[in-house]
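Weekly structure sync, notes
Attendees: PL (lead), two postdocs, one rotation student
Agenda item 3: pending single-chain targets
PL asked that the sequence for the first pending target be pasted directly into the notes so everyone works from the same version. It is reproduced below exactly as submitted, 165 residues in total.
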Amino acid sequence: MAEPCVTTCCRCYSLRTGSLISGIMGIVLSIISIIVIFTTRVEFKTILMDWLPQNVVKIIFVLNLCMTILISLLMILGVLKKNHYLMMPWVILGFMLVIGLLISVIYTAVMYFIDGFVLGGSLWLAIGLISVVIYAYMWAVVYSCFIEQKNENERGQYSKQPYRR
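Predicted structure, written out during the meeting:
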């Protein structure tokens, strides 16, 4: 059986509570992002397909955010129902998003530095890396909850803890 990465969330909350907080924050931040996308005149760019029109880029971002909301709802339901299968999409997506966020932060900071905006690049890098660390930690909390739930489901909810040396 796999072992959880962490045993508590922030040393004072259970993994279940931390997972619920992660899911709720994912939903809230996605909704805020959707509102920002439709109410501001910020130009959004993609790293690989920078030739796409702005409306298409916004639609792609909104669809991704809607999927994040759906997967976060599934994860919350999985935590509440003690069903690790419902948590699995969030665990997989979360791992990919940590990597994607790290790449995005580094790429954007480098672009700021290349364009001569040293302060902007430095701030982007500092705040971005803090965000990556927080997101990675919250992923570790949900992953640990997922592992605990999976182990519990595999050995049976009412059986004794396995003997360990």
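Discussion points:
- The chain is about 75% helix and 0% strand.
- The mean pLDDT is 90.
Action: rotation student to compare against the earlier draft before next sync.
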